[in-house]
Fold these 2 entries.
Entry 1:
Amino acid sequence: MSGIILPGADGALYQRDRAWHPAADTPGYKSTTFRAPKHSLLALGPTKSEMSGPTFGHEKLGALDNDLIRNFSQDGTEAIGQRMIVYGQVLDENARAVPGTLVEFWQANAGGRYRHKKEAYLAALDPNFAGFGRAVTDENGFYSFRTVKPGAYPWPNGGNDWRPAHIHFSVFGHAFAQRLITQMYFEGDPMIWQCPIVATINDKAAIDQLTARLDRHNTTPMDALAYRFDIVLRGRRSTMFENKLEGN
Amino acid sequence: MLHPVPRLKESPSQTAGPYVHIGMTPNFCDLPGVYAADMGSTMINGDVEGERITLNIRLIDGAGVPLSDGLIEIWQADASGSFVAPGSDSVPAFTGWGRQASNADGVTIFETIKPGRVAGPDGKPMAPHVSLWIVARGINIGLQTRLYFEDEAEANEGDFVLNKIMDKRRRQTLIARKEAGARYVLDIHLQGEKETVFFDI
């Protein structure tokens, strides 16, 4: 590849569109009240410190790290719930695949119960389900994992607030400034539109971007449904002297 | 065209929620058996140049209450001012990256080394610093800031980033005080009179 400088290989990141992301202070989601900074953020040009980031090539992932149906099984029994494969591509804003990056995910069980010591919801734990896993994207930016569909669950915000079924995602990218945590929702779930956490996002198209699509083509017949969830990280501007003639 | 319009929008952020530990520090929240160790819990593996230090970073909300459900990741240079080379397949002696959940007192503790100086955008070395990324219930998008060291006063004086903070009093919110045993202590105030400076990077 010598002589070819890929556009964006070492350019600055695009500015984050903070009107597309949720604001810090969103009163409908009450926990933000005392946790939202009141001062403006200080706009900082990119420095080496944020344009670099950790890599995990040396981390040995376990064979079951992306199989939530089996990675906590006590005796070989599989987790209870609607079996499904969640997969997707990690891309940047230039629609370029992000290979070799770590994707982490966590969720409640089929009944909406998290396996966490501070969780007190009366729905039962599944003895064979912990609810977390991780994967590294392949050379084309794809990740996948097997799990059960999480249930909705109530939370102490308003008097009767329920979270829609969702899976939390953490993605790294290649720069510390690309670091992102988000949540995946399910196509067609009516609870998406009553959730104060979803509603921290102003733009319906942005919410749509967090909504995974049922993908019949990739289901495993008589076994598991498939949902596709692509994730977009910040992209890099082209460098001054990139020599791609047609631009990008 | 030097600045083409992006074709895709970045996936919007959502809060990490109160159960972030399930996915990111499972052993810390009594979920052993799936991962051998929590990622980022150890930053030093073997012989590493540099001064061993401990960072005690406390998260405090706008009502003065410590966050017992927060999580911090740090990213920093090694003692020579270099970041870990990407694509390394062997375990780096120093990872440069750490992840810790806050304890009941709102404190995260990192065992690391004091970073060297890294060249800033103006070509001059920035003061030694550690980059921080903070997530928790009630934080809709991760907060980015830095930790500097009070015993680097001269370097701090000329630091590219600290000098971007117009109100000099607020620069102090990023400077950790030194205690016995090479322990650096920093309170991060999410909101209020002592509010920490957060960046849009």
Note: Strands of chain B lie at 52-60, 71-75, 97-101, 107-113, 129-135, 143-149, 175-179, 183-189, 199-200.
Entry 2:
Amino acid sequence: MFSRCSRNLTTFLKSTRFQSTLVIAEHNNQNLLPITANAVGAAKKIGGDVTVLVAGTQNCDKVAADAAKLDGVNKVLIAESGAFKGFTAESITSLVLSTQNQFKFTHILAGASAFSKSLLPRVAAKLDVSPVSEVIEVKSPNTFVRTIYAGNAILTLKSKEPIQVLSIRGTNFEAVSSGAGKGAVDKAPEGNYASDLTEFVSQELSKSDRPELTSAKIIISGGRGLKSGDNFKLLYDLADKWGAAVGASRAAVDAGYVANDLQIGQTGKIVAPDLYVAVGISGAIQHLAGMKDSKTIVAINKDPEAPIFQVADYGLVADLFKAVPEITGKV
Amino acid sequence: MSRVLVGVKRVIDYAVKIRVKPDKTGVVTDGIKHSMNPFDEIAVEEAVKLKEKKIANEIIAVSVGPAQSQEVLRTALAMGVDRGIHIEVSGKDYELLQPLHISKLLAKVAQDEKVDLVICGKQAIDDDSNQTAQMTAAILDWPQATFASKVEKTGDGLTVVREVDGGLETIKCKLPAVISADLRLNTPRYATLPNIMKAKKKPIKKLTPKDLNVDTTARIEIVSVEDPPTRQAGSILPDVDTLLAKLKESGHIK
């Protein structure tokens, strides 16, 4: 048995030696988004060299410099062009393909965000390989773990592809630290990456001083039980005291209480904060898919039969309109 | 715009609590309630609306899967789709079929049927991949408008509002194009009994991947399918004070 283990280890070392991963950075032309550090964390698990690609419209130097500082990054490739306005999948796919053509990476990955969910499958199809979405664990350079059926089953798969295109779930990989890395910044391959297929028009982003949902330590989430958008103020007041982010169930978004980008669940955002407080949320399968990896779950609901209590560490069977202001008052 | 192609998938019904097979090869599907993937219902509804607005003339629904996939095609026909195409793949082949294969099939049908627009759901609730629309667009070299919450015909193209991480964004894309439908795009209609009856007379063409010259060789190997770790049962607390004390004790709040 011992000899088999060591043989496996040798094969593993041999196979990791030649890995080289391209991580596609996510940023807004000014700041590198935190999920990129999680993606580099996943790339380090694969082993081998890590190159980060920063594509943006202009002045991406700061973003590139920040990416170079991430622990474990060997190289940063920077591409600046008006073609990348709005980060359209059509334009960035061409850039990734010509970068891949030159450097022949074994892995292309990014954090699973709306941006990369659009981009990576397009890249994979152009490379004629089957991509793997929302990886939660890297077992070996070609064996990955992901969830299916709204997180109710865990699939381990072995990919037969020569190039692995992966999106990784940010909450499942430790973010690498910033400052230790000494990646060299270089220019990405030149080319005409403009695409006339799609044109970015505008963006209406929700503005908030509260922490960003996917990286918040504490999240307070509201559901249908809040009864109106105005009542979400109860949650905002408590969130502000705790320095928490505010999320929502699909029911609350559909009812128009809050904007869609606050939705947590199978088809919204996947979060795993230290503390998740579900207020007036019944706990449908689709919602649980987005938050059941939270360290501690608290449920406040007046229905003692609500499925949310089956996953909650602490449950409070109470009227949220009394309990939440009481908590806020006592914090 | 003349023709719209909608991709529909038969999946285990969203309300069913799934069970993993004891041999860890997959989940139990026999005798389990299946229905149309909820995002695909939204895609069908959008296509039917385009026809009602006289922007589209004909809607074709396509489904890839075992014989029972015809049931979801019938549902699509009852919602207002004109005709169906069933690409039969079953058994082991179907278990290992990936969105890449589906995309190649959809792209081929889109070309053969000379469609101007392909609409898919943004993800299937069984494999949760969220890849098919993007890959179909890539294979066809068409623009993609993913996670659409509003679609409008403007000039000779489409203006699409997309749901992105920080809020919404608007893009314009040329036709032909591929759209993936997000939850907020519309509320799918119920098929009425007369329409269900009429749908029985609408044609469904049967094809195989071979007919379309698409190679469906497996790209992955399933190592295992397992239950997720279960959470330890928690406790119901009597009041707010106890809750706050517990949260302080565990260091979550000060």
Note: Residues 38-52 of chain B form the longest helix (15 residues).
